[in-house]
Amino acid sequence: MAKKNTRNTKGRIVAAAWKLFYENGYEETTVEEIVEESGTSRGSFYHYFTGKDALLSSLSYLFDEKYEELMPQLQDAMTAPEKLVFLNRELFLTIENTVSMDLLARLLSSQLFTKSDKNLLDHNRIYFKLLRQIILQGQKDGQIRSDIPVGEIVKAYALLERGLMYDWCMCEGEYSLSQYSARLLPCLLAGYLSGSD
Question: What is the per-residue pLDDT across 48-57, written as a single tens digit (0 to 9) for each?
Answer without folding.
Answer: 888 887 777 6
